[in-house]
Model the fold of this input.
Amino acid sequence: MAAPKVDYSVYLVTDSTPAILGDADLASVVEQSLQGGVTIVQYRDKHSPRDHVVATARKLHQITQKYNVPFLINDHVDVAAEIGCEGVHIGQDDMAFEEAKRLLGEGKIIGITASSKEEALKAASQGATYLGIGTVYATSTKKDTKSIIGPVGVSSILAALAAEGHGALPTVCIGGVNASNARDVMRQTVSPRKTLDGVAVVSAIVAARDPAAAAREIQGAVIGAKIPEVILSIARKGPLSHNMTNLVVQNFAANVALAIGASPIMANYAEEAADLAKLGGALVVNMGTVTPDGLKNYVQALQAYNAAKRPVVFDPVGAGATAVRRSAVKTLLASGHFTLIKGNEGELQTLHGVSVTQHGVDSTSTLSLAQKARLARDLARTHAAVVLLTGKTDIVSDGTRTLRVDNGHELLGMITGTGCTLGTTVSAALAAHGHVDPLVAAVAGTAMFGVAAEMAAARSEVRGPGTFVPAFLDELYLIRKASADGDMRWLTMVK
Ligand code: 3NM
Ligand code: MG
Done:
């Protein structure tokens, strides 16, 4: 069996010194940070005696195991071997890679620090599992840091790795990274060839008053920087977006799919679904104009895409509005698995079993942001799906990670089908990138859509909904094109 894929996005390195940890309890800080979304933990302790290191490592490992997060030990390869944790991190002055590998055996993570292209390429060719690249910014946490290389230095190391065939080697950067600059360092090092997988931090989490909140904020910054990868992947693969959608939006949805570089097909006859599912795309089931015959077709198509292991987006339009729709939702959720469920507050409350009065299919909002985040997270867990709760602020959750996207424009609410075409956009993102990370795919599709709306609305020729539509299609297309040309300036608009 292949080793489970490691998520390096929010990499916590611990520090037990009073200057950083203060009088907090390390185990409690680690646990809080895991609740906030830390994805990998390295126990780093340069001062304690060995028996203390062993005892602390065991205790922390028990905690990370509860969260299914890998636990690494800095330097003490023998301790890692003794407690059987997931691996180690070694610096340039520590044990040699081959020796560590021999001590740990197969299947363990061995990360290496690299401060230059030479060190990075050597570690990569030796077989390091990942690289910690630094020191990116000045830090007082580590006294003997070599050189401050900045985001430019990180970029040049990433470029060298990509050029030498190590484009797939995971990388994080380290040194002075915190919740405020994580977004900058990630964005400044984004390239079409190789992007950091995450950031490693010590004081930004260990010394934080609220380690969970710090971890959450860093998570958002890192995921935001992965958006271009998804946009580029849609453009490169041109995936099929198979829409079984309502009569009102078919034309618009097809145009949106084309603008972002996907290949639309509006096919409502489910006999075709098994063939279409083999083409590497994704399905959108939008029940905006549900009929008995339509429902049968949705079920058959859903099952065909499930059988082909291809993504399916569910858009339960007006879910709570009528008895027919409530029953259709039940039938669909019981008939197969949806990769992503997208809806406004009322629709998703209906799915969650809350009875809400919906007037027509338009959205109204009564929940606070925190309540919405909880609703999205709970639904995601119930249906093992990514949930996209749309509204002024969009919320995306996979049950573990919950993020907000604050892009969009009120003109989106003045033309028909923008909710439905967001479903189409996200389906293309899932088709292209869902196998890597469906949450990132959903965030990327949502952000691209919202930013395009803002850019369109800001155009001088746009004076209302009528002029907005063509400008919006243009901006979707221009974002795709700029990204393909390596111009990521639009990313600064992602909120
Ligand atoms: N390694 P903070 S910098 C452990 O450059 C470590 O290799 C570094 O701490 C390197 O996030 C560093 O508090 C400390 O700045 C990073
Ligand atoms: Mg070391």
Q: What stands out?
A: Residues 10-225 form a domain with the TIM Barrel fold (CATH 3.20.20.70). The chain has a mean pLDDT of 93. Residues 352 and 379 are 6 Å apart (CA to CA). The first strand starts at residue 10 and ends at 13.
